[in-house]
Structures are given as C-alpha cells and as structure tokens.
Amino acid sequence: MTIKAKMPLSKTIALVAHDNKKKDMLEWVMYNKGSLSKHKICATGTTGGLIEEALNIKVNCFKSGPYGGDQQIGAGIANGEIDILIFFWDPLTQLPHDPDVKALLRIAAVWNIPVACDRASADFIISSDLIHREYERDVPNLSGHMNRLKK
Ligand SMILES: O=C(CO)COP(=O)(O)O
User: Which spans of this chain does the record mark as coiled coil (predicted)?
Assistant: First the structure.
C-alpha cells in the first residue's frame, strides 16, 4: 500500500562518495554545477567538504560516513527531507561501515527515491526532465501498515 508524496521543484540532493570514488564525484559535480546550484545539496562530511571547496557552494554536511553520516542521510530520506541520492559507493573495497552503506541503499529503496550509484546513472537523473519540475512519487503508507498489524 502506497500513498503519494510531492517531489518539490527544488529538490534536496544527497551526495555521497567513498574514497576511491571521490575524484569521480568531484568531476561529476563540477560538470553539473549549473543544474546542482538550483537544488539544495547535502552530503556526508568528507564528500561535502570537498564539494564545498570545489564548487564554492553551501553544502549541508552531515558526519563522515563511517561515523554515522550514512545513517543521518538515511534518516533524512525516511523523514521525507531528501529527494534524490547520488551515492558513488566503492564495489571493490571492504569498508568497516558496510552495514551502514547497505542500510542507506535499503532505506532509499523503501522510500522509492531516485538513486544513482555510478556516473552513468547520475547523468540520467540530472538530465531528466523530472529534475526541473514538481511531480508525485509513491511512498509507503504507514497507517496502512499499522492497520494490518491490528487485524
Ligand atoms: O563513507 C562514506 C559513505 O559510506 C562517505 O563518507 P565521507 O564523505 O565522510 O568520506
């Protein structure tokens, strides 16, 4: 059971990159600076600091990923405060906070937000017509869930 949530004109985009992917992320944000500047940007700590420096824009920086930043972004998604996740995670390195990485990807799928895990998909999202307009997306209907449990 789902209900509709409004995707606002100005989206809140979360940017996250693992260390081996930070160069990719910086190149991507520099290339897309024009589009990104129309939206609110948040990020895990180190990624966000690098983006602020590179683009000279304000980034709402959470804690560094391994210190809870992934979980803070996950909470933002569950609270309806984050509309899009661009997460260049590293598929070739074991990380101590792997459970947090999985949890972030999971909660993004639960809340049906657009997620890009590499530059090719990030390009699709940023060049989509939907990035420039309001639209509705399905989100879980929690009251339906509570009612089912009561039966
Ligand atoms: O580890 C991360 C995501 O899992 C990213 O965190 P930082 O941006 O702080 O490096």
Answer: none
Query: Is 18 assigned a ligand-binding role in the annotation?
Result: yes
Q: What does the domain layout of the chain look like in residue ranges?
A: 10-150
Going from the first residue of the chain to its last (151 residues), give the mean pLDDT of each consecutive group of 10, the final group possibly shorter. 94 98 98 97 98 96 98 98 98 98 98 98 97 95 80 74
Q: How far is the centre of ligand 1, averaged over its atoms, from the C-alpha of 22 (Å)?
A: 9
Supply the residue whose CA is at minimum distance from atom 5 of ligand 1: 65
- DSSP assignment of the chain equals -EEEEEEPSS-EEEEEE-GGGHHHHHHHHHHTHHHHTTSEEEE-HHHHHHHHHHH----EE---GGGTHHHHHHHHHHTT---EEEEE--TTS--TTHHHHHHHHHHHHHTT--EESSHHHHHHHHTSGGGGS-EEEEEE-HHHHHHHHH-
Ligand 1, pocket-test mutation among 15, 16, 71, most atoms within 8 A of CB: 16
